[in-house]
């Protein structure tokens, strides 16, 4: 500022080095230049032509730091674990060196300056760097020029550390001359390197063969030719592996070739019992028998001579498990030796969980104390569940048979864990049921068990009315209560129906003049108490303990679900009044448990039990219902146990239905868990990926099923009042609601809330519900889906007494459904002449108009005596309530829920597609928009048969399919909530050309040979009723007979034999009409009967290889090869690949190969018994690609300064399966060329680099098999100066 106005000039080396000036503020400038040579640079600053004070300045420039020695080349070096790796760096300042091991953990580094000499330029100094690797794997060496400097050219380097000490040589067994000897080498933990294997005997090498078993495991085979000690030398990268050389004794072939060992003692034997071995053919010497137990302990064996080379060996095993049995003669093993004998103990099989009085016999550990509150025996039709624990009994076969004197009973066995089984059977008659349990054909303790069976009782809940049906002629019937007193309020109707109230728990006995007639068990479900829930851990059995004291002689059952899935469970009685519900959770999420006492719900709402992950507190895990289930439009959540790790290390990706990404909110809770929340907006499957450091957690990705309770449709519920003891049937349709748990509870309101047994039967996406109210009362029906109330729930039901004519009641369609603009009516019957009060109100979430109360005018007009006719006209669609009350109070069932619809608001998207006569064609599809029609269900009938209706993108799609055997014009009926859809067509025209649906296949449609049978098939399964006709005509008019044979429903096999060569015309008719494509030209070629395989053409990428889990497809053309059979067979390293040949009917085929494993596969394709050209084909099958396993690191994906920026980075693809690495770099002016290098074709670590030309924002995209790897795309900021980089790093760190 003090220099005044003027011009500032800056030159470096007389202007030979370019400079740049950047204004930093008023009269302040930053001057920069990039030196190109390591020598002093002269900087001259002039102001108005005069040097400023101190000018010219001298800037000493030294050469950039560089690495000298091994490690700086493109090929990575190798170093043994524990040995020092050393290299040098020429640098003007002490370099900053960081070495990262395979797990990205730092490795200690020593940096020392050399005392003698300097670097290659006088301003630099040479430094020696060394480190000692301690882990096997790739080590990344990053060298920077100073602590804050950029990467030295070539940094980072890659050094592969190996360890010969981690090579394991196993399975070395003594050999026999002339027989192959094999041993195993496992170098999977030794790192990268080369194996050297030498088999020698008496100074001579023996040829050996190495077979790779994958993952650096090898099997080595050799065949000895002389009986002597062989040495096995194994070296890894020039280092001897531990134990090398290994001795391998080889003996001569056994002289006693007929020596044999047989008997149960070589295969299977019970613990504690003598096991025998029969030895024969030992004429040249006595046998030696050595037996060792599971822990290697020796077991005493006695060998007795039987004469003539026969012996008997006996030993007594004392431990359960596998025993090794060696049988030798003269030091040589007999054929099959060493043998493996499985020792088991049938006494360790435990049968538990069978209740008192159910079995006759003695069971170890079974509590046989009886209680008066428990029922005696089991009942016909009631499941019986018990457990068999054979986990400690060893290996064997468990057999279980349930039978009666006349037949066998089916038993269902569920494997709970290894050796633990739950067995359930349902008694089918009152005959005694025998349960026989054997293990290795030996009965377990107490088997067979005898089960006494009783006829089922009539159950009734305390507080309700018991109902029994008897002969109408019965008289003098009385009911004895559980305390012995007679029940006074007993009613016997003329129809033979007996009713009486059940007021106390216990057994009621109905007696007539000739003795007892029936028994009724009165139960109290409200007395069931949950004593303990217990810890619930995924993949471990959980126990819920329940007390049934004072609840009566009922039977406890349960229902356990999680996210719409049923969880295996069983109920065990433990004596006294205690029961256990044992359930087996597999998901770490809340589970819903419903308890039932002889069918009646114990609670109105299920018990919710949280299940924790199996290894909680030991490993990072995710848990919560949001991983598996979510309600549409509601926030779903789950938590991640981070074990104290920072939240930034975790990623949560939610892909909704249709693979659309959904926003996820993550935050830390007070308990230290990471909470994830998201909202799904439509029904379907979503995928949730939970990543930690770009790696998926155990169980990820999760599949989350979303559901929408508002799309659950209830139909068939009766309207108005219901008479007691009337069976109520209705349907709940969940096909458009997604996956959830449907729960229905019916509860009587009053002083004592009695819950009724509900029969809920699943019929696909439709559920049938049945219940029978026993006593007159006001009932509430609670229907939930996925734990959320469905539309209209709870539903009120008014139940009246059948013998009471004085009760008020109502009936009519206007109590359930109505149509906009049309009158809805119902009738009310009252016991007196007082006019009832009726209110009809529309239910709205918010008032559209402040003056609108939602009430509708309802006309109430007197009809017959004590009868009133009611009518109202709704004007808007929606849900309404009808409330009715008389002088005695609200009518039973009030308020009634009414659905109001408007069928005129249903719009056919794209029109109805009707013809001039107003008919639609079938088959076809109709798309209807019902969004403005109100709450309801669309149904379609074609010719009296239901048609499929599904919801797609919020619209109803009706699929019209022509019923089998029907043609012409048929009746069509479209209804919405039972009302005909306005403007919809009433007739449909069914296609009559059924022959168009017939398909032909087979080689006989295109080729044949003279005097050789040709075959093709006719498939008319989709064409409806009819039969085929076929004819074949030669060019001179000669007719060739075609024989037709039925091969299945609608499927026919056609065979013909042409007499001469030439073109023939084939005609096929179905129901008298030509099949589409006919007539066909069949080429009948002369010559031999066998085809020419050399003329078969195979093509397609599938002949080269593919990937596991994907079909490998190729095409085969046999049209020029003549007649013959085409076969394909493919084998992998260990498994056979599935081959599927699909014939197109014209001599061409599609071949699909489905490999089950990675590795080299051999595909054999033969025609007429000969290989086709190129067969057998060698296919290279790789593992499925997994981009999440790719790691990318290095300075090239980090911010830097342009002048010193090192663009190198490494892509480690080990473990990522088969795939192609694609790297794309985009900068300020477009894309950049990327160089990729690796040591060899098998190296899975790839070095990448690019050359940026100017500062700016760069994006590095790395894809594996077309998908982004973790972290991609990588943002890379390149700056002009070090100061800009420093400010950027500070800002990002903040």
From TrEMBL:
Alphabetical list of InterPro entries matching this protein: Filamin, Filamin/ABP280_repeat-like, Filamin/ABP280_rpt, Ig-like_fold, Ig_E-set
Pfam families registered for this protein in UniProt: Filamin
Record's keyword terms, sorted: Repeat
GO process terms (BP): actin cytoskeleton organization
Source domain of life: Eukaryota
Filamin repeats: 1-61, 59-161, 163-250, 251-343, 341-453, 520-611, 612-706, 704-799, 800-900, 990-1084, 1088-1181, 1182-1278
Spans through the membrane: none
Molecular function per GO: actin filament binding
Family: Belongs to the filamin family.
Protein name, as recorded: Filamin-A
Organism of this sequence: Eumeta variegata
Name of the gene this protein is made from: Flna
């Amino acid at each position: 500022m003090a220099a005044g106005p003027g011009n500032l000039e800056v030159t470096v080396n007389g202007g030979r080095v370019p400079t740049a000036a950047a204004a930093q503020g008023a009269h302040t400038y930053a001057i920069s230049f990039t030196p190109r040579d390591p020598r002093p640079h002269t900087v001259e600053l002039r102001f108005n032509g005069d040097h400023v004070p101190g000018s010219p300045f001298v800037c000493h420039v030294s050469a950039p730091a560089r690495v000298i020695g091994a490690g700086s080349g493109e090929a990575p070096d190798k170093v043994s674990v524990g040995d020092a790796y050393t290299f040098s760096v020429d640098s003007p300042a002490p370099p900053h060196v960081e070495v990262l091991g395979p797990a990205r953990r730092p490795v200690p580094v020593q940096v020392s300056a050399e005392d003698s000499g300097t670097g290659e330029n006088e301003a630099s100094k040479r430094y020696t760097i060394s480190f000692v690797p301690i882990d096997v794997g790739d080590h990344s060496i990053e060298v920077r020029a100073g602590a804050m400097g950029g990467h030295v050219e070539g940094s980072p380097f890659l050094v592969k550390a190996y360890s010969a000490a981690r090579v394991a040589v196993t399975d070395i067994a003594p050999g026999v001359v002339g027989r192959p000897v094999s041993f195993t080498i496992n170098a999977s933990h030794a790192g990268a390197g080369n194996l050297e294997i030498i088999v020698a005997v008496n100074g001579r090498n023996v040829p050996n063969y190495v077979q790779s078993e994958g993952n650096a495991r090898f099997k080595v085979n050799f065949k000895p030719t002389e009986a002597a000690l062989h040495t096995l030398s194994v070296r890894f990268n020039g280092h001897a592996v531990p134990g090398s050389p290994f001795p391998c004794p080889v003996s001569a072939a056994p002289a006693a070739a007929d020596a044999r060992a047989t008997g149960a003692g070589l295969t299977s034997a019970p613990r504690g019992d003598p096991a025998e071995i029969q030895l024969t053919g030992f004429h040249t010497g006595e046998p030696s028998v050595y037996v060792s137990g599971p822990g290697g302990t020796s077991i005493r064996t006695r060998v007795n001579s039987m004469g003539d080379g026969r012996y008997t060996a006996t030993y007594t095993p004392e431990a359960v498990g596998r025993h090794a049995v060696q049988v030798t003669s003269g030091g040589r093993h007999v054929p099959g030796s060493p043998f493996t004998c499985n020792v088991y103990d049938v006494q360790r099989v435990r049968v538990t969980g069978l209740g008192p009085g159910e079995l006759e016999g003695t069971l170890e550990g079974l509590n046989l104390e009886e209680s008066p509150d428990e029922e005696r025996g089991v009942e016909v039709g009631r499941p019986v569940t018990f457990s068999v624990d054979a986990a400690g009994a060893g290996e064997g076969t468990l057999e279980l048979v349930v039978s009666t004197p006349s037949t066998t009973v089916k038993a269902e066995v569920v494997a709970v864990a290894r050796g633990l089984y739950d067995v359930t059977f349902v008694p089918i008659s009152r005959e005694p049921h025998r349960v026989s349990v054997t293990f290795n054909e030996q009965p377990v303790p107490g088997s067979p068990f005898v089960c006494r069976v009783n006829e089922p009782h009539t159950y009734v809940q305390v507080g309700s009315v018991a109902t029994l049906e008897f002969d109408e002629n019965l008289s003098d019937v009385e009911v004895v209560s559980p305390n012995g007193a007679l029940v006074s309020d007993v009613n016997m109707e003329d129809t033979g129906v007996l009713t009486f109230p059940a007021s106390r728990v216990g057994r009621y006995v109905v007696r007539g003049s000739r003795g007892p007639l029936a028994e009724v068990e009165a139960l109290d479900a409200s007395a069931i108490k949950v004593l303990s829930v217990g810890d619930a851990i995924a993949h471990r059995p959980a126990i819920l303990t329940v007390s049934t004291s004072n609840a009566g002689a009922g039977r406890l059952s349960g229902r356990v679900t999680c996210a719409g899935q049923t969880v295996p469970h069983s109920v065990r009685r433990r004596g006294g009044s205690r029961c256990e519900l044992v359930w087996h959770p597999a998901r770490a999420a809340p589970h819903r448990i419903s308890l039932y006492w002889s069918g009646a719900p114990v609670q109105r709402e299920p018990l919710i039990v949280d299940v924790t992950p199996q290894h909680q507190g030991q490993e990072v895990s995710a848990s919560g219902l949001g991983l598996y289930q979510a309600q549409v439009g509601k926030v779903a959540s789950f938590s991640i146990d981070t074990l104290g790790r920072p939240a930034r290390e975790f990623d949560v990706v939610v892909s909704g239905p249709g693979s659309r990404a959904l926003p996820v909110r993550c935050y830390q809770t007070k308990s230290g868990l990471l909470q994830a929340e998201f909202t799904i907006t439509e029904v379907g499957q979503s995928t949730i990926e939970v990543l930690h450091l770009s790696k998926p957690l155990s169980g990820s990705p999760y599949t989350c099923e979303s559901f929408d309770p508002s799309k659950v449709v209830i139909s068939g519920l009766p309207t108005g009042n219901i008479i007691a003891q009337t069976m109520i049937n209705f349907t709940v349709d969940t096909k458009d609601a997604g996956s959830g748990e449907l729960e229905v509870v019916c509860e009587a309101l009053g002083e004592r809330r009695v819950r009724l047994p509900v029969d809920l039967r699943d019929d696909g996406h439709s559920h049938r519900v049945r219940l029978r109210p026993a006593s007159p009362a006001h009932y509430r029906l609670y229907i939930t889906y996925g734990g959320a109330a469905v539309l209209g729930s709870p539903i009120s039901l008014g139940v009246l007494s059948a013998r009471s004519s004085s009760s008020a009641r109502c009936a009519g369609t206007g109590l359930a459904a109505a149509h906009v603009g049309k009158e809805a009516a119902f009738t009310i019957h009252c016991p007196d002449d007082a006019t009832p009060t009726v209110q009809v109100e529309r239910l709205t979430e918010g008032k559209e108009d402040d003056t609108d109360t939602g009430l509708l005018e309802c006309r109430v007009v007197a009809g017959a005596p004590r009868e009133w006719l009611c009518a109202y006209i709704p004007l808007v669609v929606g849900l309404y309530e009808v409330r009715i009350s008389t002088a005695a109070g609200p009518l039973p069932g009030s308020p009634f829920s009414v659905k109001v619809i408007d069928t005129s608001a249903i719009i056919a998207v794209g029109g109805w597609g009707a013809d001039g006569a107003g008919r639609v064609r079938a088959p076809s599809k109709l798309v209807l928009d019902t969004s403005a029609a109100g709450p309801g269900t669309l149904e379609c009938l074609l010719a009296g048969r239901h048609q499929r209706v599904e919801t797609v993108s919020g619209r109803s799609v009706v699929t019209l399919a022509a019923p089998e055997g029907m043609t012409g014009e048929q009746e069509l009926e479209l209804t919405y909530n039972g009302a005909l859809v306005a403007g919809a067509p009433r007739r449909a025209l069914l296609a009559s050309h059924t022959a168009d649906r017939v398909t032909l296949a087979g080689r006989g449609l295109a080729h044949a040979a003279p005097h050789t049978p040709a075959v093709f098939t006719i498939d008319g399964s989709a064409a409806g009723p009819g039969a085929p006709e076929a004819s074949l005509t030669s060019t001179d008019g000669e007719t060739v007979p075609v024989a037709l044979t039925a091969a299945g429903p609608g499927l026919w096999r056609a065979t013909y034999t042409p007499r001469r060569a030439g073109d023939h015309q084939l005609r096929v008719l179905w129901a008298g009409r030509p099949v589409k494509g006919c007539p066909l030209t069949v080429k009948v070629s002369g010559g031999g009967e066998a085809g020419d395989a050399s003329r078969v053409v195979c093509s397609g990428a599938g002949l080269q290889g593919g990937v596991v889990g994907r079909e490998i497809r190729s095409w085969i053309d046999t049209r020029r090869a003549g007649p013959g059979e085409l076969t394909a067979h493919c084998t992998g390293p260990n498994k056979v690949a599935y081959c599927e040949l699909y014939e197109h009917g014209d001599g061409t085929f599609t071949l699909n190969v489905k490999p089950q494993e990675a590795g080299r596969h051999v595909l054999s394709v033969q025609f007429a018994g000969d290989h086709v050209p190129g067969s057998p084909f060698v296919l290279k099958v790789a593992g499925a690609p997994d981009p999440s396993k790719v790691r990318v690191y290095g300075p090239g994906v980090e911010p830097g300064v342009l002048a010193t920026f090192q663009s190198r980075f490494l892509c480690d693809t080990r473990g990522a399966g088969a795939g192609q690495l694609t790297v794309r770099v985009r900068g300020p002016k477009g894309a950049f060329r990327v160089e990729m290098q690796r040591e060899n074709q098998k190296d899975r670590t790839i070095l990448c680099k690019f050359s940026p030309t100017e500062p700016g924002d760069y994006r590095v995209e790395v894809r594996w098999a077309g998908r982004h790897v973790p972290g991609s795309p990588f943002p890379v900021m390149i700056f002009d100066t070090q100061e800009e980089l420093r400010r950027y790093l500070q800002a990002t760190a903040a």
